């Protein structure tokens, strides 16, 4: 399992882009994790699935609510990662008005989750292999804080906890 002091593993996530910009076409665009994290401070949180109860009612809304405070504390970007396809992550972001606040990044085949060692097997519940629920504070791709939830819990990966860790 990834730990404090480790670099993010090489991986490509996908981001659905609604409005074309320089270098990003409309639709799913690849995001090279290492390149995207280079030289930045990032608040990353991962959820088991878009549109699921705790993720939709508490986890994502907390980061949206604290986005300005996280940026004021030093976050260049806030990333939400889930084992969903980029179309689902795009729709979830649109529904929650995440544009400009939180990057909604899809780990469609769980490659990133597997590479970090932060997986949760929900096959028996019809969801397959998913990401564990966690948050990380990253500086230049290096993990400086890591908050991993026990299965089914939401106690340490919330935005308020990670915001407090920026101040250390």
Describe the structure in your own words.
By secondary structure, this protein is of the alpha+beta class. It has one domain (12-166): Glutaredoxin, CATH 3.40.30.10. It has six helices and nine strands, in the order ββαβααβαβαββββα. The strands form two sheets. A seven-stranded mixed sheet has the order 2-1-5-4-3-8-9. Strand 4 (77-82), helix 4 and strand 5 form a beta-alpha-beta unit. Helix 2 packs across helix 3 (67-73). The protein is globular. The chain starts with 11 loop residues before the first strand and ends with a helix.
List keywords for this structure.
single chain; 168 residues; alpha+beta; Glutaredoxin; seven-stranded mixed beta sheet; two-stranded antiparallel sheet; 6 helices
Give the strand order, joined by hyphens, for the main sheet. Answer: 2-1-5-4-3-8-9
Terminal CA distance reads 23 Å
Write down the secondary-structure element order. EEHEHHEHEHEEEEH
**Biggest sheet: strands, sense, closure?**
7 strands, mixed
The figure for the number of domains is: 1
Helix content: 25-40%
* Strand fraction: 25-35%
Q: Class, according to the CATH hierarchy?
A: Alpha Beta
Give the overall pLDDT as a whole number. Answer: 93
Q: Using only CA atoms, what is the Rg?
A: 14 Å
- Number of helical elements: 6
SS-based class: alpha+beta
The unreliable regions are none
Q: Please, what is the CATH homologous superfamily?
A: Glutaredoxin
Count of β-strands:
9
- As for the CATH topology, it is Glutaredoxin
């Amino acid at each position: 399992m990834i730990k404090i002091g480790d670099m993010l593993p090489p991986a490509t996530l996908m981001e659905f882009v609604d409005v074309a910009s320089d270098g990003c076409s409309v639709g799913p665009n690849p995001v090279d994790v290492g390149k995207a994290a280079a030289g930045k401070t990032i608040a990353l949180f991962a959820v088991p699935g878009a549109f699921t109860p705790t993720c939709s009612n508490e986890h994502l809304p907390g980061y949206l609510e604290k986005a300005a405070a996280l940026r004021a504390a030093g976050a260049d970007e806030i990333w939400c990662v889930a084992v969903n396809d980029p179309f689902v992550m795009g729709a979830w972001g649109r529904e929650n008005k995440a544009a400009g606040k939180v990057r909604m990044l899809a780990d469609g085949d769980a490659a990133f989750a597997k590479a970090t060692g932060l997986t949760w097997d929900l096959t028996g519940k019809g969801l397959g292999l998913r990401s564990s629920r966690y948050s990380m504070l990253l500086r230049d791709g290096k993990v400086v804080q890591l908050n991993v939830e026990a299965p089914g819990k939401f106690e340490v990966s919330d935005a308020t906890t990670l915001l407090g860790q920026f101040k250390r």
